[in-house]
Structures are given as structure tokens and as C-alpha cells.
Amino acid sequence: MPKQFRKAGELPPCAHCGQPARKTTGEEIYLNHPDLADRIMYACDPCKAYVGAHKTNGAALGRPANAELRKARQALHDRMFDPLWENAPETGGYTPEDEVARKRIQNAARARCYAFLGARMNLAPEHVHIAEFDVEQCREAWRLLKGVTYPQIRDWSKAHKRAADKGEAA
Ligand SMILES: [Zn+2]
Q1: What's residue 107's pLDDT?
Q2: Is the pTM of this model over 0.85?
Q3: Under 8 Å CB-to-CB from 121, ≥6 apart: which residues?
């Protein structure tokens, strides 16, 4: 299930013009996908931007995006961010005994990857959400993650946690 940051009923601001989006449905957005007709969507008409919503409560999943930005977010997810955590079980000497263990490693890895990206981008954890990014943030995230491996992120995470624990003790 995707992380949820926006409240149900809130009209998210457009990622391009900042104006509150208009609530609509997939019937208007996905002309060729009748199966998505009932989905709640949020659109900004002047910017030709839209974003999907949480299936159960209809909360926006991010800020509406135009075609270019949707492509940039998708590329960041598919070609950079997701492979990092999805392939985590195959890195660094893990030997997951079953599918449940594999999923657990991936979930922990995903949380670390988001924390790492947020720290690098100077974003508070609640703002590290690719569906909220604009094109410039997608480019920045791409640059920051390029060449980074999951074991590096894991090491960063452990060092970060140690520093935080020390900070609390002091
Ligand atoms: Zn707009």
C-alpha cells in the first residue's frame, strides 16, 4: 500500500502552478481504461496535470503532475529508486529463507532508501514522497542516487542511527 501523506478530502496543490486541484474520477482521465473509471483523481486543468488517490479513502497520493512530470516520477521509481530496495535481499550477504523474509528485508530497505534520499535532499521524512516531487526534485533525486548501492545506504542508515542514539543519550 502506498504511503499516505495527504488527508482525505484535501485538494492537493498542483505541482506546477500551486493551485488546489479539482476532484474528479478516472472516467475523465483514463479514457481508454473503463476499469479505472471509478477511481478518484485530482486534476489541474490549465496545467493538464493529474494525480491518483488512495483506493479506500480517496486521499490524494501526491501533487497533480503533467505528462513530463509523470514520466520523470515514473522513471525515478522504475529505474532508480525501486530497484535499490527491491534488490536489497540479493545484496550484502542476506539469505532470506522464504518469501516473507524477503519481503521483510525489502520493506526495511525501502524505509532506509527513503530516509537516505530525504537526508540528501534536506527533506523532512514526511515530505519524501516521489508523487509529491516536481521535475527539479526528480532530477535532484536522480543525481543523488546515481551510483549509490544498497549496502552503502544500509551503512549510512546504521551510522545515522548510532549518531541519533548518541544524541539522545547526551
Ligand atoms: Zn496547475
Answers
A1: 95
A2: yes
A3: 128, 137, 140, 141, 144
